[in-house]
From TrEMBL, chain A:
Swiss-Prot/TrEMBL keywords: Oxidoreductase
GO biological process: tetrahydrofolate metabolic process
Protein name according to UniProt: Sarcosine oxidase alpha subunit
FAD/NAD(P)-binding domain residues: 172-447
InterPro entries (alphabetical): 2Fe-2S-bd_N, BFD-like_2Fe2S-bd_dom_sf, FAD/NAD-bd_sf, FAD/NAD-binding_dom, GcvT/YgfZ/DmdA, GcvT/YgfZ_C, GcvT_C, GCVT_N
Domain GCVT N-terminal: 613-884
Originating species: Mesorhizobium amorphae CCNWGS0123
Automatic annotation (TrEMBL), chain B:
InterPro entries in alphabetical order: SoxD (IPR006279), SoxD_sf (IPR038561)
Single Gene Ontology BP annotation: tetrahydrofolate metabolic process
Recorded superkingdom: Bacteria
UniProt name for this protein: Sarcosine oxidase subunit delta family protein
GO MF, one annotated term: sarcosine oxidase activity
């Protein structure tokens, strides 16, 4: 037998296999089908945790997802340590190892429990009052200490080795909750032929049928009927049934997030199985069948281990075959706890007494309890519980005062009534309405295409629930476009029914008391705390919530919100609806980061783009850098070179002989159509109408505000065809910018735009020997300077494949950019490389590209410009068509600020000490002796060591820079001030003779 | 995640396919170079930023790639209607805007 408290013949796990497990290192026996909670209870273990603030001993309150107390850590291995697992939800597997949390050195003796004695100092809002002074101590003393002491559980310190799956799904009808109501609704919808999804958070369907022994449907026990109905639904091709799946969030337009726990219940899940699966479901109609949650009674020391909800004790007995005690007391304000007492009594457990706050209730369950010989006390209250690590007694008093009587017990079952689970309804932005008669909030005004059925809708009784749910399921299917239902409604032969109960503190925990009567177990909020919050001026329920933290723990106040609200309302002297309910927010229960992240981690976090020539560069040992999503060859170290040595060698090599560079990542857009030139005129500052086919021009694109947006060389292939290049990072936004204007401002222009970035691989061949390398491989293009001058483009063939051959230069050397279809990129590169080897050419990367262009003063948009730089600021006024009537940015350029004197202009900087390389981003001042804060007049935008110049070079944006030629400026750095001289932007071959060299 | 109806595809598609492109019905002058400072300020810098109904541009980025206009409630996030670029600002909105979105 698995545990001394397992009752032979009781429950549904009679045939189950044994499962061994451990808790805090102690070995126990349970059975498969147990939760960790039921298995511990079967072994008589109630003490499983310490509370958040006062470190009070805690046991199990519930048997489900609403559990606030029984949070444990489950450890599979060093990397798989899951904190804050609700023991009432964790299914048992053979070998499960769990540990208690929030205690030191041990669960039974916890030093932190001193907080319980010192509790007068830890009342509501104590954070705000106690740690106010001195101000500096907050950051250095209080906050670190509080952070160390606060929190439940310990985060795992290794990367999560599990993987998480994700699915999108669409359906006609999504049914959330798989109790009697959800199953009935799903049956009706499914029988109509609609596509149906049914989800429930438990391992087994049935909801409250798990413990309601009085339910009989279609001639069977309720739980057995539920299993049969689920089997039937699973067999239907239009139905998807998901167990262990929690709907955690209800978003706009019937979009629901669900998490399916795929393998947490398995002993050896295996590497192929995801741990969890995120379902993102769009449903035409949603049926909410989320049930109701029982409330506890609010009385002194109601948190002692062994005190739990009546329905939980019933679940442990009727489903798991476990008695929660041997001598059990019951404290109730409604009928449902009687059923628990009756079930336990029939199973042979002694019921010490039922204490019922009501004066003279009548009904069949009361009669039955009395007939079984159970002592019943009406009009009485339990004013306190005895015991510490386990409840030992309950002290009973007439509710209006009088003599006390202490009854020894080892467990107390409580029921203050049932709270409809309107969480998902409220998340859907529906408005709840308060039913004054039954004292509960139920769905009022709907905001989305959903319907609530059963207990979550305030519908009492099994028969009424199934009637309502079956009709709603059929209607949902019909509204979603399905035909009328063909099935038959399940027939309820017998069911249980109760409502009412009480809200707020019970007698003995009233306004004049200072007892610890817990409202919110997880955040240690007592009835007194809520009254205090109101007395201190928190009159809105949202303020009361934040001041006391009631309902703000991971259980989201499933058991505490209504009690807290009632106590606040009573203290305020207002009716409950006027005080209002706090907002329900997603997630319904905690969701792992893993399930939200899914596969999007590591290499799959963001797409990686690689050029056609990437494998060659990799084989050559290139070091890569990330440029947006692209991997670009940064430099090609040879024989143990460091970056500087490699870049110096590459820089010199290009200017001495030639270099090959993979420029494939450059953005490329083809602008085609009869109005292509007109479109280019409007999108770029330059004139294009007169550019002859076969020629190229350096284009500047502005935003409407007049600032530089992008730049690039544009080749005119034909009167109606332009090959536009953009910066690597700018390609998508330039395309979007062009499309925006073409579609919305200039739709009269007959133009098509195509992104051709991925279609063409680009091999830049630059240097004095570049033509010698290319020429032997080219067909159909005259390579002479007369036929193919600088800034021209021809179409022909290279190595037998089509090419768009640009004569252009981003190095200041004679240069070409060979565009070939991407599929041929690496093959052509390899032929060019072999040819280049004959001349001693080098391969160079992006760093050398940057240095060489800086030597020539060519700007990089986004490095030398920052979105506040005009063409004039950058020394590119020549590229702005002065005679043009319109282009994007033409008016912005005339704004007063943009034509004002003293704007920052791009200039060159030479350090007085040529060996000193400035730091990019360093600030520039005119007078280093001025008081701090100094007036900063500019900053360094590009800075490199130039082996070709034999010195450092830099570009900078400096106020009135072009009027400062020859001036000495200063760059203050932590290790001293660096003197610099303002120069022109061209550091190498100032006359530009090498373009034809 | 919202569903947005693309007036070109004539289909409701998930929000992920779309990109917002700012307020709609702000026409670029045909005589841009001749605009006064005040007019340019109104055109380029000033936006209505309403609490409630906004007319704005969207692009069906990962679909047909067309720009279109939408009427959206900034309080509820609900799309009241969408229409093609170049069409006039609707003078009347559908009565029950919530219903339009849901159906």
């Amino acid at each position: 037998m698995s545990g001394a408290f397992r009752i032979p013949g009781a429950g549904r796990l009679k045939q189950a296999k044994a499962a061994r497990f451990s808790f805090d290192g102690q070995a126990y026996a349970g059975v498969e089908g147990d939760t960790l909670a039921s298995a511990l209870l079967a072994n008589g273990v109630h003490l499983v945790g310490r509370s958040f603030k006062y470190h009070r001993p805690r046991g199990f309150l519930s048997a489900g997802a609403e559990e606030p107390n029984a949070l444990v850590q489950v450890t599979r291995d060093a990397a798989r340590k899951t904190p804050n697992v609700r023991a009432t939800v964790q299914e048992l597997y053979d070998g499960l190892a769990a540990q208690s949390q929030n205690r030191w050195p041990s669960l039974a003796f916890d030093v932190g429990a001193v907080n319980d004695i010192a509790s007068p100092f830890f009342s509501a809002g104590f954070y705000y009052k106690t740690f106010m002074w001195p101000k500096a101590a907050w950051k250095n003393l209080y906050e670190p200490k509080i952070r160390a002491a606060a929190g439940l559980g310990v985060s795992p310190d290794q990367p999560d080795p599990d993987h998480y799956a994700a699915r999108f799904a669409h359906c006609d009808v999504l049914v959330l909750g798989g109790g009697a109501a959800g199953i009935a609704a799903a049956l009706a919808a499914a029988e109509s032929g609609a596509s149906v999804m049914l989800a429930d958070e438990q391992a087994e369907f049935g909801g409250s049928l798990r413990f309601e022994t009085g339910a009989r449907i279609d001639g069977q026990d309720g739980f057995a009927w539920a299993q049969g109905a689920i089997a039937k639904l699973k067999a239907m091709s239009n139905v998807r049934v998901l167990s262990r799946t929690t709907a955690f969030g209800y978003y706009a337009q019937n979009f629901v997030g669900l998490v399916e726990r795929v393998s947490d219940h398995l002993q050896n899940p295996g590497r192929d199985l995801a741990r969890e699966r995120l379902w993102q479901v769009r449903a035409k109609r949603v049926v909410l069948a989320t049930g109701a949650i029982e409330r506890h009674m609010v009385f002194a020391d109601n948190d002692r281990p062994g005190i739990m909800l009546a329905s939980a004790a019933r679940t442990y007995l009727n489903h798991y075959g476990v008695a929660v005690g041997k001598n059990v007391g019951v404290y109730t304000a409604n009928d449902s706890a009687y059923a628990a007492a009756i079930d336990l009594k029939k199973a042979g457990v002694n019921i010490a007494a039922i204490v019922d706050l009501r004066d003279n209730p009548t009904g069949p369950v009361i009669d039955e309890a009395r007939a079984l010989g159970i002592e019943i006390n009406f009009g009485r209250a339990v004013v306190r519980a005895g015991g510490k690590l386990r409840v030992t007694s309950m002290t009973v008093q007439p509710k209006n005062g009088g003599g006390e009587r202490t009854i020894p017990v080892d467990a107390i079952l409580m029921s203050a009534g049932w709270t409809p689970s309107v969480h998902l309804f409220s998340q859907s932005r529906g408005k709840v309405a308060f039913n004054d008669e039954t004292k509960r909030f139920v769905p009022g005004t709907y905001a989305q295409d959903c319907v609530s059925v059963g207990a979550c809708n305030g519908t009492d009784g099994l028969s009424a629930t199934i009637d309502e749910a079956y009709a709603a399921g059929a209607k949902a299917a019909r509204d979603a476009g399905a035909k009328a239902a063909k099935g038959t409604k399940p027939k309820v032969d017998a069911g249980e029914s109760w409502s009412r109960g009480m809200l707020g503190a019970a007698p003995g925990a009233g306004p004049d008391t200072t007892v610890k009567a817990f409202v919110d177990f997880q955040n240690d909020v007592t009835a007194k705390d809520i009254r205090q919050a109101v007395h201190e001026g928190m009159h809105s329920i949202e303020h009361v919530k934040r001041f006391t933290t009631n309902g703000m723990a991971t259980d989201q106040g499933k058991t505490s919100n209504m009690h807290g609200l009632a106590i606040a309302a009573e203290t305020l002297g207002k009716p409950i609806p006027q005080v209002g309910l706090t907002t329900f927010r997603a997630p319904y229960t905690p969701v792992t980061f893993g399930s939200i992240v899914g596969h999007a981690r590591g290499p799959l976090f963001d797409p990686t783009r690689k050029t056609a020539i990437h494998p060659w560069a990799e084989a050559q040992g290139a070091v890569f850098e990330d440029v947006g999503q692209w991997k670009r060859a940064w430099y090609f170290p040879k024989g143990g070179e460091d970056m500087h040595a490699a870049v110096d060698r590459e820089c010199v090599g290009v200017r001495k002989t030639a270099g090959l560079f993979d420029a494939s990542t450059l953005g490329k857009i083809e602008v085609v159509g009869p109005d292509a030139a007109k479109f280019m005129e409007l999108l770029y500052t330059n004139p294009w109408e007169k550019l002859e086919p076969g020629r190229c021009r350096y284009g500047i694109m502005l935003r409407e505000d007049g600032f530089i947006y992008d730049d690039g060389v544009v080749g005119r292939l034909a009167p109606d065809r332009f090959h536009v290049t953009t910066t690597t990072g700018g390609a998508p936004r330039v395309m979007n910018h062009m499309e925006d204007y073409l579609q919305t401002e200039f739709p009269h222009l007959n133009v098509w735009l195509s992104s051709i970035t991925e279609q063409w691989a680009v091999i830049a061949v630059q240097g004095p020997k570049s033509r010698d390398i290319i020429a032997p491989l080219v067909e159909g293009i005259d390579m002479s300077d007369e036929a193919l001058p600088h800034m021209s483009v021809r179409e022909g063939k290279i190595c037998g494949v089509p090419t768009r051959l640009f004569r252009m230069s981003f190095t200041g050397e004679r240069g070409f950019e060979v565009n070939v279809p991407a599929d041929y990129g690496q093959a052509v590169w390899e032929v060019l490389w072999a040819e280049g080897q004959k001349h001693g050419a080098v391969a160079y990367g992006t760093e050398t590209m940057h240095v060489l262009r800086a030597e020539k003063g060519y700007i990089i948009v986004g490095q030398d410009t920052d979105g506040t730089v005009t063409p004039n600021d950058a020394g590119l006024d020549w590229a702005v068509g002065k005679k043009k009537a319109d282009f994007v940015g033409i008016r912005g350029l005339a704004r007063p600020d943009l034509v004002a004197k003293g704007r920052k202009q791009l200039v060159g900087l030479k350090t007085k000490d040529p060996k000193v390389v400035l730091e990019e981003g360093a600030q520039i001042v005119a007078d280093p002796k001025q008081a701090i804060p100094m007036k900063m007049i500019g900053h360094v935008t590009s800075s490199y060591w130039s082996e070709n110049c034999g010195r450092s070079i830099a570009l900078a944006l400096v106020a009135g820079g072009r009027d400062r030629m020859g001036e000495t400026l200063y760059v203050p750095m932590p290790n001293g001030v660096i003197e610099v001289e303002v120069t022109g932007m061209v550091f190498f071959d100032e006359k530009g003779e090498r373009l034809n060299g | 995640m919202l569903l947005i109806r693309c007036p070109y595809c004539e289909e409701e598609r998930p929000e992920l396919e779309f990109r917002n492109a700012g307020e709609a019905h702000i026409a670029r002058s045909t005589n841009m170079a001749g605009e006064s400072d005040d007019d340019f300020e109104k055109f380029f810098f000033i936006r209505s930023n309403p609490k409630g109904v906004i007319y704005e541009r969207w692009r069906h980025m990962h679909g047909c790639a067309r720009f279109f206009n939408a009427v959206r409630d900034t309080v509820t996030d609900k799309f009241i209607m969408t229409y093609k670029a170049g069409e006039p600002k609707p003078s009347k909105l559908p009565k029950n805007s919530n219903e339009v979105v849901a159906k």
